[in-house]
Structures are given as structure tokens and as C-alpha cells.
From TrEMBL:
Keywords: DNA-binding, Transcription, Transcription regulation. Residues 37-56 bind DNA. This is TetR family transcriptional regulator. Residues 14-74 form the HTH tetR-type domain. It holds the Pfam family TetR_N. The lineage of its organism: Bacteria, Pseudomonadati, Pseudomonadota, Gammaproteobacteria, Nevskiales. GO terms for molecular function: DNA-binding transcription factor activity; transcription cis-regulatory region binding. It comes from Sinimarinibacterium flocculans.
Length: 217
């Protein structure tokens, strides 16, 4: 039976979009956002300029689409982990572990984000990162209602948790020797029990220094 024209057209559209996003990924990772031009992406994709503009009007929309497509999956997995949590330990450990496992499976993408950190940070309040923080805040509020997390300053806890997750993702992306399970356990113990509980673990000092260094930038 012949393939319906709309089915073939839809597949072609998906293939073209995927080719553009893959070319953009390679360009942004190698050269950085500021140095890349749309012409660079078009040339690497092998598509015509007119085809490119059918999907993206400019470089910013292209970069946003590249970041949001990957982070959407990350956000879904983290939210699911928090919803399953039955105590405060699993709330933090499972959400950090989900984050770090995804980073480990695709370190190049997250290295792309960190290489282009200024433009990524511009997304915090007006786009996807703002939504991620809002989702974390809502998950914390829900956990408090369910009795999983004690009543705390949700805004402060959101900022601390998000900042730690961001820097831990950087750590995992840049250091393949670190195991996501170990890092997630260390930061969870630090949150729940403080330094005195884990002070006999030498790796914690290096991790703490990295987190504080990231916060100071």
C-alpha cells in the first residue's frame, strides 16, 4: 500500500528539523554561540537556506529549541522522581540522581550548555529555566503538603537546590570519573545532615569547594 503523502511529508519535516538541530549542536559546541552564524549551521546541515528558515527564524530560536528539547526530557524525569518520593531523603536523592544520570548519558550536550553559559543564563527568568525553577518550587510545596518535606522557606530551598543541581551537572559533565550515584548521595547527605555527618568523606571537601566556587561566579 502506498504511503500517504502527509505521512511522507511529516517524516521529511522531522528529518529536516533533526538535521538542523544536530548541525547546530555541533556548531555551538565547537565554536560557541557568539561565533556561530546561521550560514555555518546551514552549511553543516546540508540543507538549503530556504529550508532552514521554514523551521527557525533566527539563531536565538534555534539555540532555544536545541536546549529546550533536551531539558524537557530532563524536567519530566525529575518531576516524576519527586512525585514518587515518600520521604525527604528520596525527594532529593532521586531527583539529583535522575539529573546526573541524564548528564552522564549525554555529556556533550551539557558541555554545550556550560560553554554557552551567558546565553543559557538569559533563559532563567523568561523561558525554560524559569519554568524548571517554578516546577521545583511547586514540587516542594506539594511535598510539604504530603508531609514529605518539612515546612521551610520554599523560595530559598528552590534557589539552593537548583543552584546545587546546576553545578553538580557541570561536575558530572566535565569529570567522567565521578559516579552519579555517589555525587547524588553526597549532596543529599549534606542537605539533610550537614557537614558533621559526612566530614569524614574526603571527596565531600572537593565537592563543597566546587559548589561554593560555582556560586561565587
Amino acid at each position: 500500500m502506498a504511503t500517504p503523502p502527509d505521512g511522507k511529508r511529516a517524516r521529511n519535516k522531522r528529518a529536516n528539523r533533526a538535521a538542523i538541530l544536530e548541525a547546530a549542536r555541533r556548531c555551538f559546541l565547537e565554536h560557541g554561540y557568539d561565533a556561530v552564524t546561521i550560514r555555518d549551521v546551514i552549511r553543516l546541515s546540508g540543507l538549503a537556506a530556504g529550508t532552514f528558515y521554514n523551521y527557525f527564524p533566527d539563531k536565538e530560536s534555534l539555540f532555544r529549541a536545541l536546549v529546550e528539547a533536551r531539558l524537557g526530557d530532563l524536567q519530566d524525569r525529575i518531576h516524576a522522581a519527586r512525585e514518587r518520593a515518600r520521604d525527604i531523603e528520596s525527594f532529593f536523592y532521586e531527583s539529583y540522581l535522575a539529573t546526573l544520570q541524564i548528564v552522564r548519558t549525554d555529556p556533550d550536550f551539557f558541555e554545550l550548555m556550560f560553554r554557552n553559559e551567558p546565553i543559557v543564563r538569559s533563559f532563567y527568568n523568561d523561558n525554560f529555566f524559569g519554568l524548571i525553577m517554578q516546577s521545583l518550587k511547586l514540587d516542594l510545596q506539594d511535598a510539604i503538603v504530603r508531609g514529605v518535606v518539612p515546612e521551610l522557606d520554599v523560595d530559598a530551598l528552590t534557589a539552593i537546590s537548583f543552584g546545587a543541581g546546576y553545578e553538580l551537572a557541570r561536575l558530572i559533565a566535565q569529570d567522567s570519573r565521578r559516579r552519579p550515584e555517589d555525587v547524588a548521595r553526597t549532596v543529599t547527605d549534606l542537605f539533610l545532615h550537614g557537614l558533621t555527618k559526612v566530614a569524614d568523606r574526603p571527596k565531600l571537601i572537593r565537592l563543597g569547594s566546587r559548589l561554593l566556587g560555582g556560586a561565587a561566579r
